[in-house]
Structure to design on (981 residues):
């Protein structure tokens, strides 16, 4: 596969403020890559750097094999879709889509041929004579996409293109965007703050926070082997339970909650190599459990599972599944079950999770511990 | 009761202010010698004879057209220069832009009467005396126009410009085809304010012109007044020529003019 | 595999050259490009401003300190000589006095009347026709000065003008208005008041509109009424706009030229009469330069006017810092 876009050690500073720190990545031809992170994490700035609207303070951008740091945006041959669509309200849809070509003196015949082609593909033919003000949100979204496509770019850059749509339309456009991508196969970089969008649409996901790139990988990788607590808690709904625990060594190794040492679990010695690496200077570690990983029942003696007894506080029924919010000591426990008989509020519940499904993170840095080995364990189907 | 008192006071004051303008009409269309009658005449007789005479038999129409041409040209140029400069100040982070900002603001602070002498000398050395250029070019850029456009362009979403850059649309094309058409309210305001200022020019042409053929109607009126003060009907008719266009314009746009002048939203309220 | 290596080499070369480029270009190219573009767009305006405004402003200083005529290219440095000549001419002092007289009568009158008119228009805004009265009061401001001066020449005519008719109605003695040395300048003031007050009224209205209705209502509940409410509640809130009006009015008043020229210029003699009673600084500058062609003298006078304008603005700024209440 050919590398379409390569970023090498890219940083961006505005004055004394660092927006992006040492970003490196490669995007292959035809790939759909989502850049995800909370607002202010630098993802939009990253997109602007790729587009050439801003210049990096350090590092290089390659499109195919060419260093494009000093290349003007339009020479980079990219198409861009903005959150507010940036359609010019005083021009018709046709004029909006043709504007870039007209400005370059492309012949009228060629313009209308190119615009019509795209209009057919996106089912915009009936809208060409209207102005953006007369269109619905979804139609505008498609027009913005169409305008980006008219110039037949090598790379699509999309900045939160679905954020201005209502939930229902967003779901539909998600499917449609993905379908269009599969049909025309243009390399796409898609910025969003919505983890669902990223998970459902992207071939690969880049997770960002505070101007740094935390992880890049397929949706499965991101979900099953998050490399930091941030990634772990950003993906999945409801998010992963992440607890910071104090580890004490006596006759058995125990991890307990910080405020109440009565809440404790015994750590399995077979997994020593994992949790030991997670300990920080205060002898703390963080362990994470996906809400879906919990199972009802369990016993303390079983060394293959982690068992806790929690106090149910609230139950949400989402039809197909139930979400339980419970207290384990001062810590909140969230568990999701596919249709389980009723739980009573304030009652105690015993929950367990196989140790192999527990994620280990370093106590203070939050970095995941030895992911490769974990995958191996996972592949091996448990510990012997 | 108080309500009606205020209402009548207001009406009286308003009538007082409009009366002198009304009298131009009375004098211009009244009978010969109406100006001298005591008690004064109150009602216009709609004798359009003098006005027709002024239009057909004298140079007044030419003076009026001079004014129209000077005003139109000035408006056209002001919009171009203001839009370009306003765009640069609003959207382009060029080096020294804050210095330029104050330089442009500073023009407003220069007392015009103190500059008139060196300005004349400048025009003289540019060999521009007695030309339309001398009446138009010095007013082809102004601070308030630039700031109005700057303010308006700042309100446009930055993605408009980003898309244009991605599509390789040149800045000038973008300004002409996108920014300027979208800044229609700013164009309207600048047009109105420039219209008023340019139409009412007097001192500048008085100093810069000796060629009667080029003089705007205000200047011609002044010369005429100084020579034939007592020919009230012709004077009134000529004054009417100078007044009518701007008053008609005012009637239709007073709300926006007042809003533009006051700078606030006082014009929008009733 | 081979292609992989060559590709790596290639990108390495690209990277090295790019590093070199970046070392001196970095953000520079973008910055430089936008600077060129920025100045390109500013150019028409900057050219006009520098040729017709800033250039002459600098040139003014030059002319004022040289013996200089427009028709010969010789000029000699004379230092303060022009100012000496100027200060020894009674007409200079007369014009200065007229300017100050004109200023100290007209500025407070205009400000107070404009405030009054604004209050009148603001009261009971639901009465219909408020917008119309405002428009009519503002209208004179957009009319060309000469065209409307003509009618005021007629109004001020001592024998058949409207002004004396009105005085007669109130059983007051008739005046000679523009033809008397005593009343000529006040006549000009009346015209200026009529022509410009709409502008200041509208500015005050905009200022008044920013006062929250609740403040006025609270004052009313506290028993503040009429004049007291104006002084204690409204005044502090509108002092910034008042300051602005006073400054703008002062500058405009100093700049008055057209109406003096037109109203006093009739067949009875040159503008500024009778007997120099309406010769203000701006008129004197005009006459010195363009009727008597003493450009250096006129330039010296302009410099004096420049200074006066500056001093007035500074004084007002100092006063404002003490009395204006900024929210």
């Amino acid at each position: 596969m050919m590398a379409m876009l390569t970023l090498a050690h890219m940083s961006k500073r505005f004055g004394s403020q660092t927006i992006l720190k040492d970003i490196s990545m490669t995007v292959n031809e035809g790939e759909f890559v989502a850049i995800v992170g909370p607002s202010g994490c630098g993802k939009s700035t990253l997109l602007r750097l790729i587009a050439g609207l801003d210049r990096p303070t350090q590092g290089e951008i390659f499109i195919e094999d060419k260093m494009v740091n000093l290349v003007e945006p339009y020479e980079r041959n990219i198409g861009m879709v903005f959150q507010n669509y940036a359609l010019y309200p005083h021009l018709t849809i046709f004029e909006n889509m043709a504007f870039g070509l007209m400005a370059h003196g492309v012949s009228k015949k060629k313009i209308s041929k190119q615009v019509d082609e795209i209009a057919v593909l996106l089912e915009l033919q009936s809208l060409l004579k209207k102005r953006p003000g007369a269109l619905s949100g979804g139609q505008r979204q498609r027009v913005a996409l169409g305008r980006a496509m008219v110039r037949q770019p090598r790379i699509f850059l999309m900045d939160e293109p679905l954020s201005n749509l209502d939930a229902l339309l967003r779901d539909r456009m998600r499917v449609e965007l993905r379908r269009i991508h599969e049909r025309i196969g243009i390399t796409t970089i898609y910025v969003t703050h919505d983890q669902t969008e990223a998970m459902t649409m992207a071939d690969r996901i880049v997770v960002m926070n505070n101007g740094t790139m935390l992880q890049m990988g397929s949706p499965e990788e991101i979900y099953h082997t998050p490399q930091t607590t941030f990634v772990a808690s950003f993906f999945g709904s409801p998010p992963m339970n992440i607890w910071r625990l104090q580890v004490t060594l006596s006759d058995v190794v125990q991890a307990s909650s910080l405020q109440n040492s009565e809440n404790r679990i015994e750590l399995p010695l077979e997994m020593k190599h994992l949790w030991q690496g997670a300990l920080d200077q205060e002898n703390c570690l963080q362990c994470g459990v996906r809400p879906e990983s919990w199972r009802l029942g369990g016993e303390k003696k079983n060394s293959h599972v982690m068992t806790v007894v929690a106090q149910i506080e609230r139950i949400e029924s989402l039809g197909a599944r139930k979400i339980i919010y419970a207290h384990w000591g001062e810590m909140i426990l969230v568990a999701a079950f596919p249709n389980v008989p009723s739980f009573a509020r304030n009652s105690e519940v015993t929950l367990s999770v196989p140790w192999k499904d527990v994620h280990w993170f370093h106590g203070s840095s939050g970095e995941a511990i030895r992911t490769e080995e974990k995958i191996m364990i996972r592949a091996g189907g448990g510990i012997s | 009761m108080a309500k009606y008192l205020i209402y009548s006071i207001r009406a009286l004051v308003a009538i007082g202010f409009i009366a002198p303008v009304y009298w131009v009409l009375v004098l211009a269309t009244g009978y010969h010698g109406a100006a001298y009658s005591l008690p004064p005449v109150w009602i216009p007789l709609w004798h359009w004879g003098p006005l027709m005479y002024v239009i057909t038999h004298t140079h007044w129409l030419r003076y009026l057209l001079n004014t129209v041409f000077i005003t139109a040209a000035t408006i056209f140029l002001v919009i171009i220069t203001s839009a370009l400069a306003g765009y640069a100040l609003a959207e382009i982070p060029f080096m020294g832009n804050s210095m330029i900002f104050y330089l442009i603001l500073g023009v407003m602070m220069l007392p015009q009467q103190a500059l008139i002498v060196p300005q004349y000398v400048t025009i003289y050395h540019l060999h521009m005396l007695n030309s339309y250029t001398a009446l138009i070019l010095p007013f082809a850029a102004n601070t308030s126009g630039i700031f109005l456009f700057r303010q308006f362009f700042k309100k446009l979403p930055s993605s408009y410009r980003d898309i244009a850059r991605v599509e390789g649309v040149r800045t000038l094309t973008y300004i002409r085809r996108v920014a300027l058409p979208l800044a229609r309210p700013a164009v309207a305001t600048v047009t109105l304010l420039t219209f008023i200022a340019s139409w009412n020019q007097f001192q500048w042409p008085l100093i810069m012109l000796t060629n009667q053929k080029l003089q705007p109607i205000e200047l011609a009126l002044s010369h005429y007044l100084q020579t034939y003060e007592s020919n009230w009907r012709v004077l009134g008719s000529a004054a009417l020529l100078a007044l009518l266009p701007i008053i008609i314009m005012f009637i239709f746009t007073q709300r926006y003019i007042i809003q533009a002048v006051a700078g606030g939203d006082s014009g929008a309220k009733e | 595999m081979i292609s992989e290596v060559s590709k790596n080499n290639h990108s390495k070369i690209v990277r090295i050259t790019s590093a070199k480029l970046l070392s001196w270009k970095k953000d520079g190219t973008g910055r430089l490009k936008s600077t060129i573009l920025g100045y390109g767009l500013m150019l028409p305006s900057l050219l006009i401003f520098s040729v017709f405004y800033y250039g002459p402003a600098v040139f003014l200083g030059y002319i004022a300190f040289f013996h200089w005529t427009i028709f010969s290219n010789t000029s000699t440095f004379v230092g303060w000589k022009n100012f000496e000549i100027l200060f020894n001419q009674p007409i200079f002092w007369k014009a200065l006095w007229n300017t100050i007289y004109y200023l100290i009568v007209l500025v407070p009158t205009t400000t107070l009347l404009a405030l009054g008119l604004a209050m009148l228009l603001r009261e009971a805004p639901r009465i219909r026709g408020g917008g119309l009265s405002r428009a009519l009061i503002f209208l004179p401001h957009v009319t060309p000065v000469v065209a409307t001066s003509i009618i005021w020449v007629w109004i001020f005519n001592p024998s058949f003008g409207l002004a004396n008719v009105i005085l007669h109605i109130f059983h007051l003695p008739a005046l000679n208005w523009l033809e008397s040395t005593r009343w000529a300048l006040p006549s000009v003031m009346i015209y200026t008041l009529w022509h410009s007050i709409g502008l200041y009224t509208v500015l005050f209205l905009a200022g008044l509109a920013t006062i929250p209705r609740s403040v006025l209502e609270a004052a009313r509940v506290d028993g503040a009424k009429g004049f007291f409410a104006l002084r204690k509640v409204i005044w502090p809130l509108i002092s910034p706009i008042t300051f602005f009006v006073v400054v703008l009015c002062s500058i405009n008043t100093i700049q008055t030229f057209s109406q003096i020229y037109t109203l006093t210029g009739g067949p009875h003699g040159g503008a500024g009469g009778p007997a120099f009673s309406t010769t203000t600084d701006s008129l004197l500058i005009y006459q010195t330069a363009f009727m008597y062609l003493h450009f250096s003298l006129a330039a010296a006078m302009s410099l004096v006017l420049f200074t006066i304008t500056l001093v007035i603005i500074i004084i007002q700024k100092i006063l404002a810092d003490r009395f204006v209440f900024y929210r």
